[in-house]
Amino acid sequence: MEWIQQLINGISLGSIYALIALGYTMVYGIIKLINFAHGDVFMVGSFIGFYSITVFGLSFFPALILSMVACALFGVIIERIAYKRLRNATRIAALITAIGVSLLIEYGVIYIRGAQPEAYPDIFSNKTFSILGAQISMQSILILSVSVVLMILLQFIVHKTKTGKAMRAVSHDVDAAKLMGINVDNTISATFAIGSALAGAAGVIFGVYYTKIDPLMGVIPGLKAFVAAVLGGIGIIPGAMVGGLVLGVVETIVSALGFSLWRDAVAFIILILILIFRPSGIFGKNTREKV
Amino acid sequence: MKKSKQFWPFIIVAVLVYVVVQVLISTGMMNQFYSNTLIFIAINIILAVSLHLVIGITGQFSIGHAGFLAVGAYISAIITMKLQLPFVVAIIVGGVVAALAGLIVGIPSLRLKGDYLAIATLGFAEIIRIVFLNIDYVGGAAGMQVSHLTTWTYAFVCLFITVLVIVNFTNSRHGIAAISVREDEIASDAMGINTTYYKVVAFAIGSFFAGVAGALYSHNFYIIQPGQFGFLKSFDILIFVVLGGLGSLSGAILSAILLTVVSTYLQGYPETRMIIYSLVLIIVMLYRPKGLMGTMEITDYFKLWRTPKGGGQHGK
C-alpha cells in the first residue's frame, strides 16, 4: 500500500509541475521564448497567496483567485515591458533577457522583504482519508481537484472561446493570423495572462502543500516544469499536463527508492535523454528544418 | 600577417603588467585585499574568455559553464589535498579532466541548437553539481578544505596562456571555421566545414580553460562547496560575455574586469549586486543586443582612430 501512497504523492507534485509547465508551453508555443521568469511568477503567486491569507485574512479560494488575478497582471506587465521589444530579436537575446527578468524578480523580492523563508498557514485540517490502505491527506485531494478544474478550464478557453482560437492561430502562423485580422499583441498578452495565472495558482497550492516558501523557491520547480514541458512536447498543452505528471511520479519513485539526493538530477537526466533521442517530446511531431 | 604585429606588443604589455603588480605585492605596497581582487579578476577573465570562445566565436549558447569550473575545482583539489601532488600538476589535470567532461557533454548536446542547447548545458551543469554533492570522498554538501596556493604568478601565467591560446585559435583557420559556424551553420556545412567537429573542439577548449580557472578558484578560497557552482555562477560568467559583446575578446576581458571590481565593492549587498546585474543584462539586450563592443576588438578602435575615414579591417 506504500506504493499507492507514493503514487498519490507523485501525482500531487506532478500536478503542480503540470500547472507551471502549461505556462511555459503556451508561451513557447506562441512566441518561441523560454520564459525563464515563469518560475518566479510562480513564486510571486505563492507570496501573494501567503500575504492575502495572513494579512488580509482571506480563506483559501479567495486567496487563490486573488493570486491568479495578480499573477495574470504581473505576467502581462513582464511581457509588455521586457519581451515585446524582442519579438524580432534573435532567440539568444530573448533568452538572455528572460534570464535577466527572472533574476530581477528573485532579487527584487529579496530586496523588498528579505530572503528569510515563510511558513504557510495551516488552512486545512490535517484530516486524512484512507483508501485502499493508503493515507490521503486533504491537501492532496485539494491539489488534485484544483489542478483538474483549472486544466479543464484551460482546455475550454483554448478550444471553445474566441481568444483561444486566436491563440491557436497565432501559435500556428503569426503573419497569417495578422492578415486574418487577429490582434497578435493582445493575443500574446492573453497567453501570458493565462499562463501566469496558472503559475500563481500553482504557487498557492505549493505553499499549502509544502508549507515553506522563500524567494528562490521558483528556480528549481520552474526548471523542472520546463523539463516537463519539453518531455510532453513543447508547445503542446496536453503534453505539458502529461509531462508534469510523469515527472512528478518519477521523482517521487526515485525518492522512495532511497535516492532522494539524486532527485533533482533525475529531472535533468530525463531532459537530456529526451532532447537527444526525441527532441519533439512525447506528443510532438518531427518537423523538418528548412534552409 | 597583420596579426603577428600585435604579438610582441601584447607580450611586452603582459610582462610589464605582471612585473609591476608582482613588485607592488612583494614590496608590500599593495595589500592583501587588492592582490586578492587582482587574482579574482584574473580568474574571471579566464572564465570569460573561455566562454567567449564557445558563445562569442562558435555561437553555441552554453549556460552551464560553472559545471566545468566545478570539475576543475574539485579535480585539482583532490590532486593537491588527497594525492599531495604539486599545484602545477593540479592545474593541468583539472583542465584536462574538465576538457574531457566538455567532450562528454558536448558530443551529445551540441547536436541541439539555440535554446535547447542552452537548457541541455544548464541541465548537465546541474547534474555535475549534484554528482559532486553526492560523493562523500569530496565532502558532499559540507564541502572540501583546500589550502591556499593560488598566487598572482600562477593566476597571471594561466591568464596569459589562456588569452594567447584563444587569440591564436581564433585567428587560425580553425577559428575562422568556428566563426563561420556562428554566422551560418547550414552555409558553412555546405562549404564543407565539419561543423560538429569545430563545435566540439571549441567546447572542449573552453571547458579546458574553465577547468584551469576552477583550479585557481578552489585554491584561492580555502573551501569549495557544490553550492558555489550553481546556476548563478554560470550566469555570472555569462554576463561577462554578453555585456562585453558576443564575439569580442577584449570586450569580455573588459567587462570581466569591470564587473569583478563592481561586485567586489558590492560584496556586502548581494541583492543589490544581483539586481544591478540583471538590469544590466535586460537593458543591454533591449537597447544594444550585440553587447557593448559587438564583435569589435579594442585594437580595431585604435585602427579606426588612426584612419578616421573608416579604413578599419572590420568596416563599420
Question: Explain this structure to me?
Answer:
The complex is a heterodimer of chains A (291) and B (316). Chain A is mainly alpha-helical. Chain A has eleven helices and four strands. In chain A, β2 and β3 (134-137) form a beta hairpin. In chain A, α2 runs parallel beside α4, α5 (138-160) packs across α6 and α6 packs across α8. Chain A is globular, with a radius of gyration of 19 Å. Chain B has 316 residues and is mainly alpha-helical. Chain B has a single domain, classed as ABC transporter involved in vitamin B12 uptake, BtuC, CATH 1.10.3470. Chain B is built from 14 helices and two strands. Chain B has a two-stranded antiparallel ribbon.
Number of helices of chain B: 14
Greatest chain-chain contact: A-B, 42 and 40 residues
Biggest sheet features of chain A: 2 strands, antiparallel
CATH topology annotation of chain B: ABC transporter involved in vitamin B12 uptake, BtuC
CATH architecture of chain B: Orthogonal Bundle
CATH C-level class of chain B is Mainly Alpha
Number of strands of chain B: 2
Number of strands of chain A: 4
Break the fold down into its secondary structure elements and pairings.
The complex is a heterodimer of chains A (291) and B (316).
Chain A lengths: L1 H30 L6 H17 L5 H24 L7 H23 L4 E2 L8 E4 L2 E4 H23 L1 H11 L1 H6 L4 H27 L1 E2 L5 H14 L4 H20 L6 H15 L14
Antiparallel strand pairs in A: 1-4, 2-3
Chain B lengths: L1 H4 L1 H20 L5 H26 L7 H18 L4 H23 L4 H20 L10 E2 L6 H20 L1 H11 L1 H6 L4 H24 L4 E2 L6 H14 L4 H17 L4 H18 L10 H9 L10
Antiparallel strand pairs in B: 1-2
Which tags fit this structure?
heterodimer; A: 291 residues; ABC transporter involved in vitamin B12 uptake, BtuC; 4 strands; B: 316 residues; mainly alpha; two-stranded antiparallel sheet; disordered C terminus
